Amino acid sequence: MTTIDLSEYDVPGRGRGVLDVIRWRYLLGLLIRKSTALRYRNSALGWTWSYVKPLIQFFIYYWVMGFIFGMARGEVDNFPLYLFAGFIVVTFFNEAFGNATTAVVDNRALVKKIYLPRELFPISAVIGAFVHFLPQLAILIVVALVYGWVPGVAHFGAALLGLLIVALCALGLGLFFAGLNVRFRDAQNFVEVLRQLATWASPVLYTWVLIQEHMPAWFLYVYLMNPITIAVELFHFAFWEPSVGLDGWHGFPPHFELYTGGAIILCLIFLVIGQLTFRRFERTFAQDL
């Protein structure tokens, strides 16, 4: 009787989760290029929308908060730069989180026909959101230079750390809700509510100092447990602080370094729970779709 060594073969329909990204990186690249190419397909303006849409939202927020509520009249120095630095962070999170949530459902044709690591869909959605974030980052850099931005190593490090926190948070939550969304489409509606709250739950339209002055002490601590709040403050330090100097900067919130470490740990917890939940629902993706 001949014995066949099956150790080199994979069990059909099983993978290593997020770790499969390295093995299937070519397919991941194809998915990213596909989403990027289809985003503005048959659009006259094309990639220009990546600049136009966030700028329109920014001017609306700037008009309301800057002029109606007076933030631009001495409340915050260089308020347009402050606002835009935080705004694009939340925009990146919202797009990455939303696209990751619907990534499996949007690719139902592939899911039902062939096997491939399903985690590639949310991951490609987060990376695709980062690609569309780059034009907004370019605008931010130009605006910062106009305001006299002279960054140091610490400012670049803060920006990179902020992006890492946002990407991990969006991917972890995206995996969790992407798995739920295949079976329970209510998950997508719940995510839309979270995305609407994201802008107001972080110091984008206001400063954290207002939270400290007008809310109980315990509320500030809970507020700082939001990873997006930490990422926004890191971006403020990276792009806004060099333009106003130490006199105009309101400083980091109390114990900010501890909350930054906590935000990274929390994002990793999101990633683990999201992966486990995704794998739990992955078994019935084809049937549910």
TrEMBL record:
Pfam families to which the protein is assigned, alphabetical: ABC2_membrane
Claim: Membrane is one of the keywords in the record: yes
Family membership noted in the UniProt record: Belongs to the ABC-2 integral membrane protein family.
Origin superkingdom: Bacteria
Predominant subcellular localization, coarse grouping: membrane
Keywords: Cell inner membrane, Cell membrane, Membrane, Transmembrane, Transmembrane helix, Transport
InterPro entries found in the cross-reference section: ABC2_TM, ABC2_TM_bact-type
Localisation per UniProt entry: Cell inner membrane; Cell membrane
Ranges for domain ABC transmembrane type-2: 45-281
Annotated PANTHER family: INNER MEMBRANE TRANSPORT PERMEASE (PTHR30413), TRANSPORT PERMEASE PROTEIN (PTHR30413:SF8)
Transmembrane segments: 55-72, 79-100, 120-147, 159-181, 218-238, 258-278
Membrane topology qualifier: Multi-pass membrane protein
Protein name in the entry: Transport permease protein
